[in-house]
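User: I'll paste a sequence; please echo it back and then give the predicted structure.

Assistant: Echoing your sequence first, then the prediction.
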Amino acid sequence: MPLAEFLADFGDSLFDAVTEQNRPVYHGQTYPETEAVWDALARPLFDAQREVVRAVVQQLIVDNKPAAVINAEMGTGKTMMSIAAAAAAHHAGLHRTLVLSPPHLVYKWRREILNTVPEARVWILNGNDTLAKLLQIRALDRKPAVPEFFIMGRVRMRMGYYWRPAYAVRRKWVPSEGASEGYAVTEFCCPKCGHEILNEENRPYATESAVKAALSKNRRFCGHGKTKPCSEALWTLCRKEQREEGTAPTVYERVVKAITALPGIGPKTADRLVSLYGGEYLASILENNIQAFSNLMDENGDFLFDDRQAGRIDRALGKAEFSLGRGGYQPTEFIKRYLPKGFFGLMIVDEGHEYKNYGTAQGQAMGVLARCVGKVLCLTGTLMGGYAEDLFYLLWRLWPQMMIEDGFVYNKGNTLGTAGMAFMRQHGVLKEIVRRVGIEYSTGAFSSSKAERNHVRTAKAPGFSPLGIMRYVLPITVFLKLRDLGEGILPDYREVFRPVEMTEGQRSVYGQMEKELQSHLKAALRQRDNTLTGVVMNALLSWPDCCYKPQEVYWRSEDRVLHQTEAQFGADEPTPKEADMLEVVKDSLAKGRKCLVYTVYSDTRDTTGRLKHLLKLHGIKAAVMKASVKADQREDWVEDHLLHGIMYKI
């Protein structure tokens, strides 16, 4: 019987049999308690989103599984769905949600949370005050009455901390033999037990520089004690500048540095504020009541800042953290050591595919945090990059029990390299590349001129087995596509491709350049030299955008210039693509729209300055956003410049 006929006749019964043997975790179950929670959200869930959240709750709370994954396309509302799941988890007893976010999305996460769960309490663990907040959190001995979210950027999560040696110094009188007078010596001791710190030869250190140099090599603890070691830390936290310069900045310097980072406040205004209110008072406001800063009054009872400037400062303060007391400490280490296991009932991992690599600091930190929390919810739009290895280490961090049951464990060297290769062999694709090299008799390596030597190399290839999908992906993953949301849910969005032809002269120069560079590339590849591939690709791709100035194709490994071209357009003469861009911008501005112009080349082949110049020639105000603008400040950067009526180019 042909396969198509078999499926047509028995497809329904086959589907029922497979469903019975592999019954899904979620098949439409609903619970009144969680439904009431979602009905109370400030922003309602779409039907498809609610189905996803129900499946996550079924997996994590009802079936008590350690992890779940939401694999959804961009625009489907992964953030919204995870917040709804966290709200349900709070009412189910999984208090406190830890969110691992990309650094530029930390404050957008807070905004989304407060817009969805207005009564929620949100903590930002992404600034210099992270240690102070963690200490404050540890002191909270209560179950939260409202959902609490703790948002941590993945860069801050993996960052270490600065420290310096800590010891006590005392003077000891040593009497001289046979004389009434003696002399004093300096001893360097443990701050707790008072025992003198000795070197590797059990001798005291002669100078302070010697003991400081010895204790600076690694973080040491006092090992002296009668019954058990003292274990006092011979180091303490400090700030970066104190570690490098040896002295800590004053409160005045810290306050001035903090408030000059706010919009509209320069060094002179900062000095005036400090002289008016005092450094200690401003420091207490910045650390304890930050929003009161924009409402400061002078001696006459008038507000220092007008409404417009106060609004700008308020927006900046909403994303600012100030720490004027303690130094930094790695948040992951603090949570592991000083917070009880399960303190955070749920951890949401945004952009989970960023944690798939084995040796990265952020991947290892995420694995540590996953062991400290109750449940893990991973959000991603690209769960796999095509290789089985992409999933292996992520699975190990999300659900290690499952991987251990299947035999993927650490080897004797305490690494997962062997297990990762075994996972690839079972569920992925490995290819063996055999290179046969003939050895001539004249070399003397073999006794026959026909002898051959084989080089075998194993490399991974794209692919993942259906068995691996059934075992590791489907049991923990909920999938959602944009089309599942239904028609008319999202606003209309159009992408228009505008082809632009080069001028005759431009096309002629480009054709000659392409011909010469291709010949050089083919010659290099025949010699098994791949260093020219990227050079040729970048040159050919960038030249149409950058031909307004002389171009040179330089092959660094051979130290020679392969091709040179002269400028094809003047400083005030737009290229065809630039002329088309100007036409689009003018049309949009005539319709009352603001424009964002993105350009690929902003570093070595910087085109931003030229585009701004061309826009200015046509009477259009423009601003250039440089890479120096921090990712989490770019949205505010755009809003601030919009107030000045600028058409933006980024």
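Residues 504-526 form the longest helix (23 residues). Residues 323-327, 440-444 have pLDDT under 50 and may be disordered.
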